[in-house]
Amino acid sequence: MTEARDRPAPTYLSASMRVFDLALGEMLWSRRSVFLALVVGGPVIVAIVLRALDAFQLPALRVNGVRVAGPLVFGMMIWFLYLRFIVPILGVFYGTALIADEVDDRTITYLFVRPIPRGAVLLGKYLAYLACTVLIVLPSVMLVYFLVVPIGDGSIARTFPDLLKDLILLALGLAAYGAVFAFVGARFGRPLLFGLFFAFGWEVVTLAVPGYLKRFTVAYYVQGLVPHAMPQDSAAALLQSIFRDQPPGWAAVVALLLITGGFLFLAVRAVERREYVLEQ
Description:
The chain has helices at 2-6, 12-28, 31-55, 70-95, 97-104, 108-112, 118-148, 156-187, 191-208, 219-223, 235-240, 249-273, and strands spanning 62-63, 66-67. It is mainly alpha-helical. The protein has one domain (10-273). Strands 1-2 form a two-stranded antiparallel ribbon. Helix 7 (118-148) runs antiparallel to helix 12. The two termini are 35 Å apart.
């Protein structure tokens, strides 16, 4: 008993790593992991279908009689499937649940009675979310890349640098959205509804409306880093023109890092200061 009392309390970092180890295993074997697999598996199935259509020379991949190049198809999938849907939806469902699930399951008191800082609990669970999503989303992107890019005589060697940029961009997006919604889940009640409204209501509307409001979205800075240049005569160019007001690349990176660090700090402070009252 005396040795246990005299044992020094774990540091903030070591406590976060302990929570990370526990939370990562729970996330990988939770029902949300099935949802995650279904979400990231969708683009892979689409890529397999497109590759099969191309192999049989079917007209599905032709515009005005001209075969659509694989790099263009891949860029459109990154833009519309991953950046505008998969990354935000994973941030919403995982980020808001980091603390909210513990409250709903009435297990948060067991976490907070341990001799570790409250904020370390959220930080460790956030790192587990980031590891879980990155390690599943990025392989999905690579599968889509190798399936789609060769369509229409696309060059893998020439476009490989864009793939690396895409992987970094997706990781930044997952980090930023996860931090924003971790704060929402730690600070507000019913965070899932708020998160869905922000990602698929507020961001969609403000990006399409001229003005400065778009600077209060994560998507505005994510789109500034998209490496794919859409041909001007394509339907993708028409849709992409809605988002033509883009920040410089360096400014987008700085903004995403500030968003991630700032909201993660606010989330940690919210957990440390908020009194969580469990409903009877």
